[in-house]
């Protein structure tokens, strides 16, 4: 696989980890077993049958867990670091012919970074949904997250460059939103009355 395509694939799978941690890991396992992706020697275990069972079980537990009231909030507290780790691993697993230092640095910054960014965004949106609906809208939100993970995974596997372009637009959108919020923030007001004055008798 071409290096740039491999990096795009890894970043796309990492982004999918931000929606659901184990869905892209299971998809990577199945793609490797089907011969679509060739994993380096250090990641050959991810293509094995034991990994299939483990990833499938974890995927099922994660998906169902997000439909349980209030348990989804607990999952969010551990999903963010888990998504960063999973995004780093999936990115490193698909990058061939690169020294360990550069591979893991790229995997951590690009893969772990995009996974964490997507996960933090979903946590913020879930919190807003919880406040707006009192938790009744969380099943719908969980379904959208699952769909986002599946769609992003499929895009990464079959059209990685398109997936990378869409993620770039997503990042630019977040950046513009942050800049707009910073511009709209009111400027700090000076203290009323100005600086305190020292009486003449105390100066002496």
Provide a descriptive summary of the structure in words.
It contains eight helices and no strands. The model has no long low-confidence stretch (mean pLDDT 88). With 204 residues, the chain is mainly alpha-helical. The protein has one domain. Helix 2 packs antiparallel against helix 3, helix 2 runs parallel beside helix 6 and helix 4 packs antiparallel against helix 5.
Strand and helix map with partners:
Layout: H1 3-19, H2 23-33, H3 49-65, H4 71-94, H5 100-133, H6 138-158, H7 160-184, H8 200-203
Helix pairs in contact: 1-2, 1-4, 1-5, 1-6, 1-7, 2-3, 2-6, 4-5, 6-7
Helix proportion range: over 70%
Major beta-sheet overview: none
Oligomer: single chain
Order of helices and strands: HHHHHHHH
Weakly predicted, low-confidence segments: none
Query: In whole angstroms, how far apart are the ends?
Result: 83 Å
Per DSSP, the total helix count is: 8
How many β-strand runs? 0
Total discrete domains: 1
Radius of gyration: 23 Å
| Class per helix and strand makeup | mainly alpha
What spatial form do the alpha-carbon principal axes imply?
Answer: globular
Strand content: under 5%
Mean pLDDT: 88
List keywords for this structure.
mainly alpha, 204 residues, single chain
């Amino acid at each position: 696989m071409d290096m740039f395509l491999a990096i795009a694939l890894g970043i796309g799978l990492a982004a999918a980890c931000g929606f659901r941690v184990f869905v892209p890991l299971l998809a990577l396992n199945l793609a490797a077993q089907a011969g679509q992706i060739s994993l380096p020697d250090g990641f050959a275990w991810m293509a094995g049958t034991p990994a299939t069972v483990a990833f499938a079980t974890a995927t099922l537990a994660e998906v169902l867990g997000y439909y349980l009231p209030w348990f989804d909030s607990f999952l969010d507290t551990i999903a963010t670091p888990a998504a960063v780790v999973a995004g780093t691993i999936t990115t490193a697993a698909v990058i061939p012919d690169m020294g360990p230092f550069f591979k893991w640095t790229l995997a951590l910054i690009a893969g772990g970074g995009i996974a964490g960014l997507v996960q933090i965004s979903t946590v913020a949106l879930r919190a807003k949904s919880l406040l707006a609906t009192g938790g009744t809208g969380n099943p719908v939100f969980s379904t959208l997250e699952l769909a986002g993970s599946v769609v992003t995974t499929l895009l990464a596997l079959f059209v990685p460059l398109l997936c990378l372009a869409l993620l770039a637009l997503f990042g630019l959108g977040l950046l513009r939103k942050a800049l707009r919020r910073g511009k709209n923030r009111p400027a700090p007001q000076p203290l009323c009355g100005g600086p305190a004055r020292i009486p003449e008798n105390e100066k002496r």
